[in-house]
Each structure stands twice: as C-alpha cells, then as structure tokens.
Amino acid sequence: MRSLLNFLIRHMNLILFLILEGIALVMLSSTHNYHSSVAADVFGGLTTRLSASVENVKSFTRLRQVNRQLAFENAMLRQKLEGTKRITPATETIVNDTVNKLYYSYITAKVANNSVNKQKNFFTLDRGLSSGVVNGMAVVSPDGIAGVIVASSQNFSVAMSVLNLNFRQSVRIKKNNYFGSMSWPGKNYMYVEVTEIPLHAEVAVGDTIVTTGFSALFPENIMIGTVEEEPVMGGDFLTLKVKLSTDMKRLTYVYIIKSRYKGERMGLEAEVENE
Amino acid sequence: MNKTIKYIILFIGLVLLQILLFNNIQFSGYVNPYVYVMFIIMLPLGMPEWAVLLLSFFTGLTVDMFCGTFGVHTAATVMAGFVRPYLLSLNITSEAINPGNTPSVKNNGLRWFIVFTFSVVLIHHLTLFYVEVFRFSGFFRTLLRALLSTVFTTFFIVLIDLFRSRR
Q: Could you report the predicted ipTM of this complex, rounded to two decimals?
C-alpha cells in the first residue's frame, strides 16, 4: 500500500497528464460534428455572438461583391420571369400548379462563422430550429454548392462545409451525364476533386460539373464548378480537378434548401434496402 | 504590478488576439499560426509541473470553446504543458536561471528564447494538426502544415515578446 502510494506520488505529473489528455480525447470523440452548436447552447451563445460580430465586420468589407452577386441573380430571375410570360399564352394547356409541384423550398440565412483553413471545416448560420432548419438540409450560395446542415440549435445551425474531408456528393458532367463522386482533398479551398468518372467519358477543361439528384439532399443541377485541368487516370476511373464556383472564403448569404419529399423518398429506399 | 494579474491580462490578451485576429488571417491553406501557446511558454520558470498542466488544460479548453473544436486544442496544449519542463531542462544553459522568472528575450537571450519557443510550439502544433485531421493518410502534408505553422507562430511570439519588453 505504502509503495503504491509512493509510486502514485512519484508519477503524479504523468498521471495528471494522462487524465487531462484522456478528458480531451473523450471530448473530441463524443462531440464531433455538432460541437459548435452545442457550444452555442451551453455557453449562452457568448462565443457564437463574438464570432458573429467578427463575421459582421468581415461581411461589411464584402458588400460590394455581395451586391454584384445579388444584382446578377436578380437579372437571371427576371429573365426567367419574362420567359414564362411570353411562353404561357402559346401553350395554354399547361397548368402551372406550383403548389403540388413544389419540391424544394428555400430559407435564406447569413453566415455567422466560417472557416476554410482546417481539414474539417464547418460554418455557422444564423437560422436554427425556430426557422425550420433541421439536419440534412442542403446549403447553397448564389454561385453553387456550399455544404450540408449537420446540427441545429434554437437560433443557429452548423453546416459541414464542402471543404471538409468527410463531405461527399454525387455529381455529374453536365454535357454528357456521366456521374462520379465529389470530395475535397484538403489542399486548396478553391478546388475539389471528382472521382469515379468512367474512363470512356469525354471530359475537357472548362466542362461544367453539377449535382445529381441521387442523394435526396441537393436538388439536381446545383452548380459545383468547372473542370480545371486535364483529367488524371487513376485505376479504372478518371479523377478531375474542379474549380469550385462558390468562393467559400467569401461566403456571406446562403440558401438552406428544404426538400419536401425527402422523408418519403428515403423511407421508401430504406424499405427496399432492408429486404 | 501583481504577477497573477499580469498573467490574467496576458491570458485574455492572447486568447482575444488569437480569436479576433489570427483565426481570421489565412496566409494559405498551410499556415495557421496559433499564438495563444505563448501563454504556456511564458509561465514562470519554477512553476510546479501539475500547475503548468492544469493551466495548459484550461487554456486549451478556452480556445476550443471559441473555435468550436472541442478537445482538439485541449489535447495539444496539455501535451505542450507536459513536455515543457523537459524542454526547459534540455535548453537551460550553464548560467543559472532564476526560478520565478518569466521566460523572455530580455531575461534569457534571443537565441535561447527562439529555441525554447520553437520546441514547445512544434510539439503543440504536431499534436494539434494530427488530432485535428485524425488520420494518417496525407501524413506528409499534415507534417508540412505543422512545420510551416510552427515557424510562423514562433516568429509572431518572438515579435510579441519584443514588443512587450520594449514598453
């Protein structure tokens, strides 16, 4: 007993070190994806408010660019509006039942905190459960893909950024519909990688890459980016380096996309998988 | 000024500097300086090891809270606090160093301070970057990130120390 006590006293520092390191690792593994959101609740939103005010200053410096982006988007929407006006009288048989056909609805949100310099990046949005934001909703910027909601508290939600080693999305080459899988290799915040494109697919530099509707998270045809370099052959597949159309470093206003039939669809798919 | 108050001010200053300034600067994907480690470096020389460990733990926990990365910084700072005494005993040269002194360029000389800072920061950054990624694929890229960031963090810490002692 005495020698045990002596041993403990002699190695007190090592034991203390192991205990503290152990606590850190347990914290790390138990609160992995939703840590930011938990922090927002536990610490009374103090930390989130602080980073939100930093983000506020940063977003002020980006106003010019955001304005240009919004003006551009307005122009595009206006164009679509004009288009429907001209077509409708000619094809009167089309009943434009927007209520039943509405597949996705959009919630606007502002980025409260963002990072691009880690290997697993997340960003915080200023909308949460009270605005109807729940896990698994897609997040897009006016320019294209941005992330997926992984946690939400009352007034905030945290999205896994495209720039996260764990992010995967099914994508296709717009011109010929060959599909593959998109992920971020963790190097540069401007580029992602598309793998599993078949060898015989014709790909040229500058080709557009968009989402497929396979995942039930993202609507089809959300812009990912354009092919930056000649494809590289890896195994039986091609690997493409794709320049993201969204500038993740300047992410300010985003849309959270709510898929109305996601539950029904995933339930059906899960049923078949269980067979 | 009372030493404890001095350290509290240093702690708050470094954490704010880290969150408000350094977390928002991105030199490239490879360089993320974490200057708050300076707090662990600056602790008094004769401080008992257990106290260094607890303070390191607390520092990491605070930064984790603000960065929204639970455990990552804590794991790294506890590691840094643990190796600090060993690095000190390696680095201390023939001249006796007064226990209770704060390590600084003024007290210990530029070369000693740079070597000591660099070694503590290196251990901290290696732990931090590998724990953050939590995988060994891309081993050398993580290593490069840690090394480059260590160089920059050391540079900033020496700069802050010089600025501090000039006043």
A: 0.82
